[in-house]
Amino acid sequence: MKKKYFNLQEVFTPSQPANYTFIQRDIVNKRLKRALNTPGKQIIIYGYSGAGKTTLLTNTLKEEKLTPVITRCILGMTLSEILIDAFNQLEIFYISHKETSESDKIGGNLSASYFGIKASLGAETVEGGKSSVKRAVELPISPQTLAKFIGEAGKCWVLEDYHKIKSEDKTQLAQVMKVFMDSSIDYSNLKVIAIGAVNSAREVVQFDPEMKSRISEIEVPLMTIDNLKNIISEGERLLNIKFPIDTINKIVSYSSGLPAVTHQLALLLCEEETIDKTIKGKTISIKKSAFEFALDEFISENSDTYKSIYENATKIIHARKLENPKDLLISILSINKEQVSVYEVRDEILKTFNDYQGTNLKKYLHELTTPSRSEILRYNRDSGLFFFSNPFIKAYTQCIIRDELKPETINKASILKELKTTLNRELEIAKEAFLRDFEL
What confidence tens digit (pLDDT) does each residue in 133-153 have? Predict the structure, then answer.
């Protein structure tokens, strides 16, 4: 029997993979299913933060009836640490010491093999005898051993935020993928699925070119206008509510292709209208005025995030003449366009410094699209243009640079009004650009 009533947090899920409001993206879903069903094929799923990578994988694994062992990587994590994490989750034990006697055995039994999955362990009471069981994680762990036991368990191994692993360990991870590929002869479902930021797949191939034909590189792009609207319409159906068309357009425009933002704004709108579960009876219409509350709350909740993104993006590791991150952001904003090319940024700098060469400009602009710079910019490979990752961070950057403020001097109350004013100016520009570049 299908579920009829839903809690709000089940429908709009900004911080968790969407289940009931999961929207199929046919091309990406097809590629992922093909890779999952190809024995030996290792998978790297990449894309911008908030684009729906984990949601896509979670729902597709469920459809294909595959159970993952999930390792969530953190900054600076070593290969040894991720191997131990995966092994630990399997809860494998071995008998380190066993004493027996002539007496009768009573009770259950204990797997006599050197290694045993947790489920195979039973209780044992031996009069005059003892058994000592230890976790297998205490033993030396190799990729071959890990592949064997993940394979025996009928599972696959998912590495979330793979890009956070130390660079020197990514070379070894490519070797681990080779081991899993070879072991797939015995275990057809066995594979490594790495979820990472933009360019993650290229890193593996760069570290080990032999893996190029053995890895399925699946990019999860920004969502289209229709995709984002489908999230909202599915939420409307499940909660028995109706958003005004103007409100839907604003949510979609501010989301800039990120489903996580769509979920967050829709959630806040429902909270303002005190909707916490499916409405019984007549459909409830959401008031237009509720959007102002949702926007205020969204900015307030995320202002610390904007501050962190800006500070991380503009920090100076090695000072560069005219090409420090803040210098580049100022030039981009001065151009006053939604998307800019390398040549436009160079020409903007040349207006003030006529001897500027810009030899490394493209490299430094691309750096601003990476996790090390909090992805403050994005890059459209088809058009070759750079743009801010979302209207909120662009507005925040404008406010700080225009008023020459220091991030630490800004509080949520003082920036809220100015951010909203700047956002209102950006909204129509962002909407036009989004319609042009991401609508199918």
Answer: 455 445 567 888 889 989 998
